[in-house]
Amino acid sequence: MLAYVALGANLGDARAALERAIVALDSLPHTRLLARSALYRTAPVQALGPDFVNAVAAVSTRLTAPRLLEGLQALEQLAGRERPYSNAPRTLDLDLLLYGDARIESASLVVPHPRMLERAFVLVPLAEIAPERVCAEHLVAVRPQRVQRLD
């Protein structure tokens, strides 16, 4: 199954955390990294703390969506992710954006990610690696949100 994962961090060395996480995605069971976007600096959206570094990765996986989510959460834990309150600053945030064309709604997982169309920090890097998955109108709608591609 082709899946897309959003990566973000705004604590510690966020760039290094994302680079490590991208490599770690390829080490999840039955999962292979297919593509990754550049890194982007973005302002927090409905969150506190310093600017975020964000990216999106495409993976091929034989894991079910819930098992993939478990793997992503395990990687967050390895990176020292804490959840003291909603939208707290984070060492690593991994969100399952898309899982093929599946529509999933459970207590622990909603796919497509329910807020992805509102967030430039998701849509811009997703459009970089999968332009067919991003509608031009959605990119226009998030244009006011600051997104800076990093070298």
Give descriptors for this structure.
28% helix; 151 residues; 4 helices; Alpha-Beta Plaits; two-stranded antiparallel sheet; 6-stranded antiparallel beta sheet
Describe the structure.
The protein is an alpha+beta fold and 151 residues long. It has one domain (2-149): 7,8-Dihydro-6-hydroxymethylpterin-pyrophosphokinase HPPK (Alpha-Beta Plaits). The protein is built from four helices and eight strands. Strands 1, 2, 3, 4, 5 and 8 form a six-stranded antiparallel β-sheet that branches. A two-stranded antiparallel sheet has the order 6-7. Strand 6 (104-105) and strand 7 form a beta hairpin. The longest helix is centred in the middle third of the chain and has 14 residues, at 65-78. The chain is globular.
